[in-house]
Specification:
About 5% of the residues lie in helices and about 45% in strands. The chain has about 450 residues and is mainly beta. It has one domain: Methylamine Dehydrogenase, Chain H (7 Propeller). The longest helix has 25 residues.
Length: about 450
Amino acid sequence: MNIKYRFCLSLLLACSCLIYSFAGKIGDEKKIAPTRVEVITPFHKSEFRDEQCPQRIQGGNPRTNNGFLLFDGAMDGNRQVDPQIAVGGGYVFHGTNSGLVIYDKEGNYVDGVSQKCFKNGIDPKIFYDVHNKVFGFDLWVYWDSLKVKPVNIAVSETNDPRGAWNIYQVPAPGGKDGGGIGYSRKWIGYSFPGGKEQTFVLKMADAIKGRSTKAYHFPGSLGHPVFTQDAIDDLFFFKIKGDEFIINKVTESEDGSPVCIEVSRTKHKLEYINYPPKSAQKGTEQVTSSGDRNPKNLVLQSNCIWFSQAVNCNGRSAVQWHQIKLSGEFVQTGLIASDKSNYIQTTIAVNSNNDVLVGFQETNENMYISPRMAFRYAADAPGKLRNIISLGEGKGATNGVAWGDYSGSIIDGDNLTDLWTIQSIANEQGKGETVIVKVPFK
């Protein structure tokens, strides 16, 4: 065997080993396929409010607060108002347990209906798809007589929420509560607690066109779906399990069906990660729910996942926020905490420049539940938010532990720079009203 031949053979063997090693690595990825697939035919609405849907008038009254545009959202809630907003197409789209309302971006009321006009349900989560320029939301019906507990996924056909919508009623047997919704350029994802299958995905293009589509159900929970602001097809999911952060993604396989791949599993090593304690409020011994260490909305922006959470910090509820790479590595983290007050019910919004808005509420022994926010520019010191800003002061104590499970914070889908938040505020009877605030960024 001559030297030239041996060299070529050695090179071929080396390349073969490299190829085998690479293929083995890909083959070793933890992949999860759907356990069940069903075809869903949508219910079509030609307009947001028709003759069968009485008008629901709520909120408006634009004004300024600390130099920011502020206006009222829904005012007819009890404790669990579950407020959410999405912004795009020149509109602010707002949902609570009582219904859906549209405002213009100056804070003027445009239109509103009961959630019954969208096949009913509670616990709305709302998004504006910045890629396809459409709105979407879910409503969970746990009281249906057939006990399939459908999740009604509604998607607008355009960026005008006053126009046509398509509603997909996806069975979620075993569901115990409303869940979380997320989107990417290709997928809509929903995860909920309870049952053997706790996550399903739909194809965004089908939902926009109002075509019959397949609902792909996955075993267990993939985590909370993410608002995918980066222009990609894959849809990411995030969950906290013990001392780990787990990031999964749903991607399209060669036959067009989805498959889930575990992206990373990382020890978070955070000092504050336990669930927050219930929080005191003025004038009563009745404590109130502080929220959840599991984030209620997550954003994929600049190839990082951003979220905020309520945690136990030295016996009080505090707000903690993070930016992490898809590898699970922390870029920055910050904490809003006090030894004299409680910060509860938090959400985060991030724009295309990586500026951040964190919305939340404050309550303590000398204060009723009151809306708050803090923000930062991308160039600010890592992990630091600017001063807390009051968005109003609560006027009465809620008489129950439950308190509007969600606040909402979101990007402006038209310019991708301004950020918005909706927060609950306790009125004189201790019931949940809402305020919506715009934070402009240059």
